Amino acid sequence: MVVQPTTVASGWPDDPVPLDLATAPVPEYGTGSLADVLPTLVAGQGAPGFDARIAELAPADRNCLFLIDGLGWEQIKAHPDEAPYLTSLLGSSRGGTGRPITAGFPATTATSLASVGTGRFPGAHGLPGYTVRNPGTGELMNQLRWKPWTSPRVWQPYPTVFQLAHEAGIHTAQVSSPIFQDTPLTKIALSGGTFHGRLSGEERMDFAAEQLAGGDRSLVYTYYSELDGAGHRFGIDSDAWRGQLMFVDRLVQRLAEQLPPRSALYVTADHGMVDIPFDDQHRIDFDEDWELRAGVALLGGEGRARHVYAVPGAEADVLTCWREVLGEQFWVASREEAIALGWFGDEVDERVHGRIGDVVAAAHDDVIITASVNEPHESAMVGVHGSMTPAEQLVPLLEVRS
């Protein structure tokens, strides 16, 4: 089915013209997205049922995926002095092509980690945003913090790549902070094999290298979150963020220098980030905007990737209003348009359909939709992400081989 983007017809030459939805850069699902990485790696290790989706990657017996939260492709390129080792690896990205891969939509942690771990696109694994409506209860579900509680295996029923690799005889391990071991997101996205909690970044690098050597065929995942935290709190144009980037650069080199034979290390991220100024031009407060609130029952997603759930019967009016008010700065699509255009992958499971907003708004410009009353913490963030712009969507797939 092909859905033609809705346009606003008017005889007035100064009326705003909404962005053409066809110009939204849809992620490279199936050939070069986060969801394609692990299936490609385990296919090269001989695990049954997997295809090598990213054609540029050569097989290795031992694979380590190091995911650094918030380390966008454009952010590495903009900071060669703070990240000399990462910069030296830019040409190795995506199998030596020197190209990035894409995160997936929305470019946010819960969605991206589920894509990585399941090898499925957001429309299938069912975590299509930071907060989405639970069709069974009508409540907003925060998929990062898993509130309010719902059964993880009902919400995301597919096995992870780690589970299937473990069943295929591949030595499989996750090395991360202990605080993530028992979270629902870990259970549904990253479980399988053995979880090893290590507090410091250095400990994680050292133990990841040990686990990589633990089998003739190994699949090891490790993770670092503090770069993202510094970006949200202080912005990517801050000394705090640059200091974290310098530390990350040393962690990657530390792990790379310990790789056992026949290994490949891949360094990637769940999203990039942009800084948004604190003024009315760049921050639109939904809680203070009567036009945007009209007919809206729930506001989900996050500032640069909003799911808008309309009062029953008001869906068309909400779409028209959001497109008229925001259409020059956001790609504003109906649920059906977003699905047909492939924003969430080539298929959307029936159980996921109602989790997607009646209206989906993805930022094009340097602007966010805040909710100062209902989302005070998120509204105070300096660095944000979620949309399909290159700064948010493009992530590295840097490679080191032994």
Give the number of helices: 18
Radius of gyration: 21 Å
Helix content: 25-40%
Strand content: 15-25%
Q: How are the strands ordered across the major sheet?
A: 6-5-7-1-8-18
List the uncertain runs: 1-13
| Category by helix and strand content | alpha/beta
Main sheet attributes: strand count, strand direction, barrel closure: 6 strands, mixed
Q: Which word captures the global form?
A: globular
Rounded mean pLDDT is 95
Quick one: how many beta strands? 18
The termini sit apart by 46 Å
Report on this structure.
It is a single chain. With 402 residues, the chain is of the alpha/beta class. It is built from 18 helices and 18 strands. The strands form six sheets. Strands 6-5-7-1-8-18 form a six-stranded mixed beta sheet, with helices on both faces. Strands 11-12-14-13 form a four-stranded antiparallel beta sheet. Strand 5 (171-176), helix 9 and strand 6 form a beta-alpha-beta unit. Helix 10 (201-212) packs parallel to helix 12 and helix 11 packs antiparallel against helix 12. The longest helix has 18 residues, at 239-256. It is globular. The chain starts with 36 loop residues before the first helix and ends with a strand.
How are the SSEs placed, and which strands pair?
Blueprint: H1 37-44, E1 62-68, H2 73-77, H3 84-88, H4 93-96, E2 101-102, H5 109-118, H6 122-125, E3 131-133, E4 140-142, H7 152-155, H8 161-167, E5 171-176, H9 184-189, E6 194-197, H10 201-212, E7 218-224, H11 226-234, H12 239-256, E8 263-268, E9 274-275, E10 283-285, H13 290-293, E11 296-302, E12 305-310, H14 315-326, E13 330-334, H15 335-340, H16 350-353, E14 359-363, E15 368-370, H17 376-379, E16 383-384, H18 390-393, E17 394-395, E18 398-401
Helix pairs in contact: 10-12, 11-12
